[in-house]
Design a protein that fits this description.
One of its GO terms (biological process) is nitrate assimilation. This protein has about 110 residues and is mainly beta. Helices cover about 0% and strands about 40% of the residues. It has a domain at about 15-90: Rieske [2Fe-2S] iron-sulphur domain (Rieske Iron-sulfur Protein), CATH 2.102.10.10.
Amino acid sequence: MQDWIKIGHMNDIPRLGARTVQTAKGDVAVFRTSDDDIFALFNRCPHKGGPLSEGIVSGHVVVCPLHSWTIDLETGQATAPDKGCTRPVESKVVDGQVWLKLETAKKVAHG
């Protein structure tokens, strides 16, 4: 099951930077562009698993710090000529608060 989870205020993420959120499925990098768009991707480059959260944000791509692959922040796709994809995470901003749609534990009724 997936639920929207509030992770903090947009201003907690620097422009052209990222913050990392730990989840049961792995770390998610949450990026803020220069025009204040928010994107979230699993924090592993499809090339060699580099930490995308440590990369440089330019426009709507992030440059992996290990081998300079560029990853589209919206789709998670590597840009040509590179090939591969990291999984995007649905995100939204409501009243300045950043929300991610993340998998949560199933709720079990006891009785």
